[in-house]
């Protein structure tokens, strides 16, 4: 089993900035010395879902240690809930688009 690497919170925020600037995972890994692309994907997922409080938690403790939603301020809880609902809405819209395209394809076959 490999050893766990702790990346400082500043590195995680830099990854977010670089991804938003259009950099590839490979470029970011080389520039910042990150060992695996799954780490970048995890941080991006946390960012998109409003779980950035995990950036400052210990390695391996992001799920059970430190701030959970009950420890966030009411405003932060509402922001997190809003982000989660926005993400769900975005997913539903994409699903509806796919469903419509399938419907159109089946109509053309008739």
Can you walk me through this structure?
The protein has 110 residues and is mostly helical. It folds into two domains: 1-67, no CATH class; 73-110. Helices cover 62% and strands 0% of the residues. The protein is built from four helices and no strands. α1 packs across α3 (37-48). The relative contact order is 0.09. The model has no long low-confidence stretch (mean pLDDT 81).
Report the major sheet. none
Q: Rg to the nearest angstrom?
A: 18 Å
The coarse overall form would be flat
**Class computed from helices, strands and strand pairing:** mainly alpha
Number of domains: 2
Number of helices: 4
Look at the structure and give the mean pLDDT: 81
The succession of helices and strands, N to C, reads HHHH
List unreliable stretches of 5+ residues.
none
The proportion of residues in beta strands is under 5%
Quote the distance from N terminus to C terminus: 56 Å
Number of strands: 0
Helix content: 55-70%
TL;DR?
With 110 residues, the chain is mainly alpha-helical.
Helix and strand arrangement:
Blueprint (H helix, E strand, L loop, with lengths): L8 H12 L4 H8 L4 H12 L25 H36 L1
What are its keywords?
mainly alpha, flat, 110 residues, 4 helices, single chain
